[in-house]
Every structure is written in C-alpha cells, then in structure tokens.
C-alpha cells in the first residue's frame, strides 16, 4: 500500500474501534469525541511506522539526514523492507516503545504532571499523518500541526493521552493488514522464520498467490501497490472517516446527530 492509503486505513480502524456512529463503528473500546478524533490522527501516523524500514518512506523525510539514518538503521536491524518491521514482532516492539514513552512524565509546578513522552509521540505521528495525506505542503508546517495538537491535548484534556499506546498498536496492525491485501504480501506470523511452500503447492494457481514462493503470505484483492483497486478502497475509507468524524464533531458540540435525522 502507498503511504496515503496506510494513513487513512489507520484513521478508519481507530474510528471503527472507538467511535460512536451507529452501524459504522464497533463500539469495542468507546471513547469520547476528543479521543476518537485526536486518536484517529495519531493512529493514521502510526500506520506509517512499519515503513520506517525503507529510506524513501514518509517518516524518513520528516527530519533531514537524521530521518534517513534512522530508517536505514531500522531497515538493517529488521532485515530490510517488509521483514521484521512488518511482523508481529514489529507490532510488539512499537507498542512497547509507545507504552514506555507514555511513562515519561514531568511534574511542572503550578500545572501538574505533563506527559511529555506521549505528547512528543503524538506530535510526531500527527506530523507524519498530515504530510502523508498532503494536508500541508511542507514538513515545518506538518511539525507545527503536530505540535499544536499535542499542546492542545496536554493543556486542555491531558487524560486523553491514556490511549496513545493503543493508537500506535492499532495503526501498526492496520498497516500490516493493508500490505497483506496487496500482491507483495508479508512474511507471515513467524518471522524471522519464513517457511516456503512445497513446490507442488507453489504451482497451484490460487494457493501460489496466497502462499508465495518466497514464503510471504498475501490475500491480494487490492492488486499491486498503487493500483486502481487500492485507490478505490482508500477512497471508500476516506468517505467513511469523513462521515464518522463529522458525527464525532457534532457529539463534541453537544449535538445529538441522531436527533437531526
């Protein structure tokens, strides 16, 4: 999947889990409108994290020089693009780091405890999300948007940052799910062990595309990365996010959306 598709899939996954819009949300982990909306932005950014194993990824461009160095290191440690960073181990590591980041709290006299770690993570992931979706034109503007959202949450509703590790986990998994739906596939659940199919199975028309000769697994209903099917799917997700986000905005304003129907 392309970065723009990953970002919108992360936002959609978060809203589906935490939102309140009837039918379109599962209600599995309901949050108030602020948590749904802010979390959707953070989750969109987190959905770009697995591609930190590639030097051309969105996250690699966020900070000059340092971004490419960091993604190069991640790529080397994880075995290259779509290897370790695109596995359950990658999910676990990212979630653990997000949780550890959320523990970084600094007491500020007259204000109270400030969750600077989660705030910094929120700023960075928001920056990735708005740039991937081309909502801003430059990286400085993206960082400004990320810092603004983090500041608002820290100052106005600091308790909202409790969902930060969860948003990272959901966004990360959304990315992996998206890649499985393309022809490239993923190394499967057992990385670094990537078992290859027996030759007799690899030659079968359908199974050969699902369990590929390199051991990767795919359900390629979206075709190649950047295909018209992927773009159409991303368009549907964007429509979903727009409708559901509008519902949450009305809730935040104290308006019952159902009463307007």
TrEMBL record:
Domain of life: Bacteria
Keyword Hydrolase (UniProt): yes
Species whose genome carries this gene: Agromyces sp. G08B096
Record's keyword terms, sorted: Hydrolase, Membrane, Transmembrane, Transmembrane helix
GO molecular function: hydrolase activity
Protein name in UniProt: Metal-dependent hydrolase
TM annotation in the entry: 7-25, 89-108, 139-157, 232-250
Entry keyword Transmembrane: yes
